Structures are given as C-alpha cells and as structure tokens.
Amino acid sequence: MREITITANDAGQRLDRFLKKYLANAPLSLVYKAVRKDVKVNGKRAKEETMLAEGDVLQLYLSDADLDGFTRKKRVTAAKKQFTVCFEDENVLVVSKPFGLLVHGDSSEKKDTLANQVIDYLIEKGDYVPRLEKSFVPSPVHRLDRNTTGLVVFGKNAQALRILSAALAEDRGFSKFYSTIVCGELRKELHLKNRLLKDEKTNRVRILAENAKDAEGQPLGKHIETIARPLYTDGRFTLVEVELVTGRSHQIRAHLKHAGYPLIGDAKYGDARVNRQIADRTGLSTQLLHARRLIFGKLPEPLDQLQGREVTAPLPAQWSFIQKELFGKEIIE
C-alpha cells in the first residue's frame, strides 16, 4: 500500500483523472478497476468523479512492484531549446515559438516540441522538479499551428494553468494580436463576426453566416469574432494587425479569406496564383502569421498583478526581407 498526499498542484481535479496521470503506464481498465477496488480517499471509498482537495490522503492498495512500473517515468534526452523567453514570473511563462516547431507532439513528432523544450528549461532552472510532482506538468494554455510563429503562454503551476485555461475558454484573460500580410487593398478596419465549422477529417474550417443553424434550428459551429486593422497597403498587399476576440482553430486564416483578404503564402486558404508569385520572389511557402503581442486582462489572484501588462515577440528575420520585397521598405520591425 502507498499513501499519497495531494498537493496544491494536484488538487482541483477528479480522482480518475489524477490516477490516469499518476499511473501513467497503467492501462485505463486497471485505473478504473483500482478506483472501484484498490483506492481510498481519506480512508474511505470514493467515486471516479470525486474532486481532490489539497491535503487529501490517497491510499493505493497495489503492490510496490506494480506501482513502480505504473509510475516509472521514461528517460528522454533533453530537446534543444529553440524558443525565446519574452516574459516570466513565478506563475506564468510567455515564450516566442519559432517557425516549424510543434507546440504539442503528433504522429510525426513526439519528442522535439515546444512543450517538451519548456519543461526541460524549467527543470534546468529548478522551477519544475518532476520527482516532487504526482500529476502536474507545466503546459501551454493555447496552441499555434506549426508554421505560425510567436507568443505562447504557459502555466508554471496548476493554479495558474487552471486560471488561464478557464479565462481562455471564455475568450477573456488576455488579448492576442497577430501580424500578417494579406492579398488586396484593405483601407479600413474590419470587425468580422461569423460562425466557424471545422471538418476534423480534412482539418479545414468553413465560415458560415452569424445566424447559421442546422436542420433542427440549433446554431451551427462556433461563434468567431476577428478584428483586422490595416497598418500599410500599396494597393496589392496590406500589412495587417489582427486581434482575436475569440480563438478558434484556423480562425484568422479562414476568416480573412472569407472577407476577401487571404494571407499570403497560405496553401490551405490562400490564393494559389498569388502564392506562387510570392514564393518565386521571397521563398515563402506557408502562411505568414506571427503572434506578435498580447495584453493581460483582469485575472483573479495570484495573477491579478499581470493586468495591463503587454508582452511582445520580435518578428522573425524573414519578415524584414518580405516587407522590403513587397513594399520596398520595412514597415514594422
């Protein structure tokens, strides 16, 4: 039998979810069987949905050999640090992600990801000690596409991660601003409101009318809201700052395409003819999109001191060349 005392980083989650993380190498069937037969919380049987609080004591009635095997962490060689730290305090880390790096792993790459690089960075600093944690791992609050660069926010402890994730789910907590160049002449600010419907099989989205409904009269997809502010145009292309009021998959790319201003280089939603011309001139082969700045809003303690703080990420080097090639000068640095 092993006793585990729930810490602040482990609290606030369901019993079954804690055990899935703690017994990471165990099959799910064993985890749920353990909840029914081999686990007590504060000396009593508990249900899967029991919420754990700081100070709770779990008794796991499994053999030491099984527990060692189910909890043994795999040794992974540290990934080379590719990101830049833009802001950090004891609760929050904001980094700038480079081009081509995944935030989380997928079938093509599981090890060399931004999330793993950040974990290695925090371990090296001493801000995260895996052997002292039962279930918590520092994690990103949101994602960027592999080929989108710029700011990604991480929670360094469970409380910060919960606060930021809850705020983001309600489209509050911090305002996100992206830089891009679009096809066409945009002279006035666009405030776009529609609905977005994602096809998981093709990983593409469709933009629908704001009042779109299904056959049963229920709203289709998710509400999206995007603000595009032109910074400079030569009539052919426009340098734009985009504010995400909501944050959905492919929102900027699909929403601006729908409005008649596709991003240059965007193979999925862009103008193929223009993209070929841009590629010949600049070598750009994917969407030009950079999460350049964010401003923290009103958040509860202990993140309340972040309110109003602005964090920025410098533009990647290729931006200078592309601006000069398209506009004859560098508009933003």
Write the layout of secondary structure elements.
Layout: E1 2-5, H1 15-22, H2 28-37, E2 39-41, E3 44-45, E4 57-60, H3 64-71, E5 84-88, E6 92-97, H4 114-125, E7 139-140, E8 149-155, H5 158-169, E9 174-183, E10 190-199, E11 204-208, E12 222-233, E13 237-244, H6 251-258, H7 272-282, E14 289-296, E15 310-312, H8 317-327
Parallel strand pairs: 8-14
Antiparallel strand pairs: 1-4, 2-3, 2-4, 5-6, 6-8, 7-8, 9-13, 9-14, 10-11, 10-12, 12-13, 14-15
Helix pairs in contact: 1-2
Explain the overall architecture:
By secondary structure, the protein is of the alpha+beta class. The protein has helices spanning 15-22, 28-37, 64-71, 114-125, 158-169, 251-258, 272-282, 317-327, and strands spanning 2-5, 39-41, 44-45, 57-60, 84-88, 92-97, 139-140, 149-155, 174-183, 190-199, 204-208, 222-233, 237-244, 289-296, 310-312. The strands form two sheets. Strands 5, 6, 7, 8, 9, 10, 11, 12, 13, 14 and 15 form an eleven-stranded mixed β-sheet that branches. Strands 1-4-2-3 form a four-stranded antiparallel β-sheet. Helix 1 crosses helix 2. The chain starts with a strand and ends in a 6-residue tail after the last helix.
